[in-house]
Each structure stands twice: as structure tokens, then as C-alpha cells.
Design a protein that fits this description.
Blueprint lengths: L1 H22 L4 H20 L9 H28 L1 H10 L2 H9 L7 H18 L14 H23 L4 H25 L8 H26 L4 H23 L6 H22 L2
Helix pairs in contact: 1-3, 1-9, 1-10, 2-3, 2-8, 2-9, 3-4, 3-7, 3-8, 4-6, 4-7, 4-10, 5-7, 6-11, 10-11
Length: about 290
């Protein structure tokens, strides 16, 4: 469980750094760009993966999709944290698990038991309540709520792609990261370049240290999560439940207690329902 706890810490700390960086006026486009370069270097140093030749068309298309989606969804995450806070962004990210669930049900024809169906229903209620806000308090920040939806859809799509690669058994996870991280770096390089040239963003040398910090934590989050699954290979549902619930709980505590993010009673109920939904879905995996 040590790997799970450390992975949760890394995941939430990434959100904290992105929120602090935005408050200090640093460009998260540049930070995200540097982050992927750092993550790629760490992958090479620690895992020493080998470049595969002659990948199938389906595997290549999935890897390219991940190269495109990872930096774009990371930007959605940064914007969601800026406009809606860490609490709601973490919930949106963790609730994204229901997209691959629907993929499994409708595309892969997986059978759902009662626990999983109840969990899915509670998840929809949790998403609605977590994002709910009173109309009379709507302002320019609240109008950016759609970034939460983009985070949910984006991370759900990424999860589906990773599951497809895993089912192909053509690449190990470390080899996927070895291919995806430089691609994500290239995409984010063009995005940050656009904001530097067209939007006249300034480059601050301190952005490099922030990018290194985010990159190390992002790499640590992924690596520790993999190690947790390896250490608890006979109980993957334990890793799944602990990770998702841990991020929501720690992220909520940080957002509410440290950043003083405003939540109404319906938002709090949404947090409780999201935890209950994840618990039921995890239990449904054990009951299979």
C-alpha cells in the first residue's frame, strides 16, 4: 500500500503545483511542455526501454492518439483547476472511469452485475451534484465549468486507449511511455510555442524548475501506480479503489482547507456519492 499512498500524493501534488503556478502568473503551457520531456528522460534512465520496430497499424494509431490526447487533456486539467478548483477537477478525473465502463458494456459486451449498475447510477448523480452551482452566483469563472467535462471525457478516453494497448500485448507499459512521452512533448511544444509567439506569453526561467517538479511527480504517479499493481497483483481492485478514493479525499481536503475553495452542500454530497460509487464498482469486480 506504500506505492498507492505515494502515487496518491504525487497525483494531488501535481494539481497543487499547477494551481500555484497559475496564481503566480507562470504559463502552464510551458510547464506541461517541460514536464513531458522530464518524464521521458526519467523513463529512459529508470526503465531503459527498447524501441520496437514494425508495430501494427492499430497499436501505432493508439500510441499516436495518446501522444495527442495526453498534453491536451493535461491542459484541460490545468484550466479546470484554475477555474473550478482542485476538488471538482479531481472528482471529474476519477469519475472518468465510467467512460471505459460504458465502452466495456456497449463495445466489449461485458456483463454488469447489480453492484456495478448501482455504482454507475450513483456516479451520474455524483457528477451532477459535484459540478452543481447556484445560478445567482455565476460569474466568469463559473462559466468555464465545461473544462470539468473535458477532463472527464479526456481521461476516460485515455483510459480506454491504454486498456486497448494492454489487450494487444504488443508493448509493455514502459515501452508505451517511452513512445508516448516524446510525442506528447512535441505536441505540447507546438502549443506552448503558439502562446509564446502569437499570444505574447513571456518565458520565465523559473518555469523550468516548475516543469521539472511537475514532470517528476507525473512520472512518479504513473510509475508508482504500476508498481502498486505489481505488488498487489492478486488484488487489483484494492489498488483501483484506494487510488481513486484517496485522490478524491486528499484533493478535497487540500482544496477546501488550504485553497479555501467554495463548496455547497450539494457538492459535498457529490463527493460522498462519488466515493460510494467507486466502492460499489470495485466490489463488483471482487464479486465476479
Amino acid at each position: 500500500m506504500v506505492y498507492v499512498i505515494l502515487s496518491i500524493f504525487c497525483s494531488v501534488t501535481v494539481g497543487i503545483l499547477l494551481k500555484l503556478a497559475k496564481k503566480m502568473g507562470y504559463s502552464f503551457y510551458q510547464i506541461i511542455n517541460i514536464n513531458y520531456f522530464v518524464a521521458w528522460v526519467m523513463t529512459i534512465l529508470l526503465y531503459e526501454p527498447k524501441l520496437k520496430n514494425g508495430l501494427s497499424f492499430s497499436t501505432t494509431s493508439i500510441v499516436l492518439s495518446l501522444c495527442l490526447l495526453l498534453p491536451i487533456v493535461f491542459i484541460f486539467q490545468a484550466k479546470a483547476i484554475t477555474y473550478s478548483g482542485i476538488v471538482k477537477t479531481d472528482i471529474a478525473q476519477r469519475m472518468s472511469l465510467f467512460l471505459p465502463l460504458f465502452f466495456s458494456f456497449f463495445i466489449l459486451k461485458e456483463t454488469f452485475n447489480n453492484y456495478k449498475w448501482i455504482g454507475v447510477i450513483l456516479a451520474f448523480m455524483a457528477i451532477f451534484l459535484s459540478f452543481y452551482r447556484k445560478k445567482n452566483t455565476e460569474n466568469e469563472t463559473n462559466k468555464k465549468w465545461y473544462f470539468l467535462l473535458l477532463v472527464l471525457l479526456g481521461f476516460g478516453s485515455i483510459d480506454i486507449l491504454f486498456k486497448q494497448v494492454a489487450s494487444l500485448k504488443e508493448l509493455q507499459f514502459t515501452e508505451i511511455l517511452f513512445l508516448v512521452f516524446p510525442g506528447a512533448f512535441l505536441i505540447s511544444f507546438f502549443i506552448s510555442g503558439y502562446y509564446l509567439i502569437k499570444q505574447k506569453e513571456t518565458f520565465n526561467k523559473q518555469v523550468i524548475s516548475w516543469g521539472i517538479g511537475v514532470g517528476l511527480l507525473n512520472f512518479g504517479n504513473i510509475s508508482l501506480y504500476i508498481k502498486a499493481h505489481q505488488a498487489l497483483s492478486t488484488s487489483p481492485s484494492t489498488v483501483f479503489a484506494s487510488m481513486n478514493m484517496g485522490v478524491i479525499i486528499l484533493g478535497s481536503l487540500v482544496g477546501i482547507l488550504i485553497f479555501k475553495e467554495k463548496m455547497n452542500r450539494w457538492n459535498y454530497l457529490g463527493i460522498v456519492l462519488s466515493l460510494l460509487a467507486i466502492g460499489l464498482i470495485t466490489y463488483s469486480l471482487v464479486e465476479k
